[in-house]
From TrEMBL:
It comes from Canis lupus dingo (dingo). It holds the Pfam family WWE. The gene is DDHD2. This is DDHD domain containing 2. GO terms for molecular function: phospholipase activity; triacylglycerol lipase activity. One of its GO terms (cellular component) is COPII-coated ER to Golgi transport vesicle. Residues 1-82 form the WWE domain. Transmembrane segments: none annotated. InterPro entries: PA-PLA1, WWE_dom, WWE_SEC23-DDH2.
Amino acid sequence: MDAGSLYEPVSPHWFYCKIIDSKETWIPFNSEDSQQLEEAYGSGKNCDGRVVPTDGGRYDVHLGERMRYAVYWDELASEVRRCTWFYKGDKDNKYVPYSESFSQVLEETYMLAVTLDEWKKKLESPNREIIILHNPKENLWKFLQCIYNYEACIHCHHFLLHSPYTK
């Protein structure tokens, strides 16, 4: 089997950020809303000025701005992200999506690692952590340990990409 055929890009899921108890919490849109946002994003048209109703029409997402606004009441607008890669910090009890720009860098680096079979690539995350991409076949035991310990791990692309949020 060709190494290039092993690469499978992730299906993004859309999230919005709410401030709860003075802390940012990233909440996934439901599957239908996420799909609508992804279709609007991928339509090939400029996202500026595109508005996608979500949550039964109670919120509008202004796609170009990446902001979510309440339609019928006053509420602070919230940031919206198209998410593919996540991390879990020492003090986080949930996975947090990386920024869209850094997620794109991670995805491109992962694609190259898979297609060229060149692993152990090092990247520095926006919060200054060093990320090393490992071949999941060689690191199955480490991957299982990370799952057991609930550690943030990039030993397996699909573990992070298909986190509990994206099911």
